[in-house]
């Protein structure tokens, strides 16, 4: 089997940033899908990098994934990595695993050693964008908990913020966390994201004031390049410290481990180099007794599925990020997009229990497709009625071709590259809720 084409599909999902999907085709008619992590207004450079890498993929064996990773990181880049390069590699690498899973009839987690768990807990993100006042944040948090989530993440500092903040900004952040904790109660896990904004002295000051509200972690308290400062914060604050979404190489994570800068890492499958790199970094973390909670500012279709497969593999996995703001788009472009289920509710069908063991998959099984969850997903639930949003691992007998039904991306919202404009122009299935003719680049 040989790769014949790499195609790139940028699309605006209706919220904040563009998403970038990657399709890899082969001479045997087996194709795979991946997703590259993007940031607002940086997606064009990632698309360009995918197109450049795509030329080097043609003629390669899609099964030779590790060799492909090393070719990109060493021969292609000359050890000069970047977010754009790693994001492009990640999308292509996920697509290669999708091809291998289709060709072998196995889910990816089986190909990489088998799962350590049958379900994956998630936390909600994307629910607090544009909400600033403590009372408004508290109401938004209460609403998301009412949907069944028992873990949520938010950003208490005003935006934009700087490394050296005045006391009133610190007071505001404390007031936001206090209000959220009061609204959701002690039984809900709250995660605080600082977005790499604070100098260590301010991170220590804020962290100490937040201790009484028992957050599950404080994320990216300092710029990632200041691992010594992050270690100092960790030694002074009694809250677990998380970092990793802005670290793109194994060497970067090795430094974080050796400096004692983190309790938990959150690498992103869309920017770390893909599924295999994330698995191997998780194994590195395990030897330092560092937990892994994958970052997942990606779609609830491909990126989420790839993250779920790796999360199933890692003994030191804790919880997975889930962006509620991408749910509607994820359902629109992929019928089999993974849906969280409140507590331990039923998943793919009334006859399928979330705790069933994983059986041998049928030949048509592919991997980055996970079954649609039960109808209970997203419905109102009384606090206390659920034990947390969970992903049931895919029942192989229920898996269906992820993109065999095609990815219905409307041409009107895609920035087509020269390699794939013809393929998307023939798509007739439009997503009605996306405004035809809307600009493909998300506003900052």
Structural overview:
With 444 residues, the protein is of the alpha/beta class. The protein has two domains: 3-104 and 408-425, Enolase-like, domain 1, CATH 3.30.390.10; 110-398, TIM Barrel (Alpha-Beta Barrel), CATH 3.20.20.120. It has 13 helices and 13 strands. Strands 5-6-7-8-9-10 form a six-stranded parallel beta sheet, with helices on one face. It has a four-stranded mixed beta sheet with strand order 11-4-13-12, with helices on one face. A three-stranded antiparallel beta sheet has the order 1-2-3. Strand 7, helix 8 (227-236) and strand 8 form a beta-alpha-beta unit. Helix 7 (200-210) packs parallel to helix 8 (227-236) and helix 10 (275-287) packs parallel to helix 11 (302-313). It is globular. The protein starts with a strand and ends in a 19-residue tail after the last helix. 52% of the residues are buried.
Break the fold down into its secondary structure elements and pairings:
Layout: E1 3-11, E2 19-26, E3 32-36, H1 43-57, H2 65-76, H3 83-104, H4 108-111, E4 119-125, H5 134-146, E5 151-154, H6 167-184, E6 189-193, H7 200-210, E7 217-219, H8 227-236, E8 241-243, H9 250-258, E9 264-265, H10 275-287, E10 291-292, H11 302-313, E11 320-323, H12 327-333, E12 341-342, E13 389-392, H13 421-425
Parallel strand pairs: 4-11, 5-6, 6-7, 7-8, 8-9, 9-10
Antiparallel strand pairs: 1-2, 2-3, 4-13, 12-13
Helix pairs in contact: 1-3, 2-3, 5-6, 6-7, 7-8, 9-10, 10-11
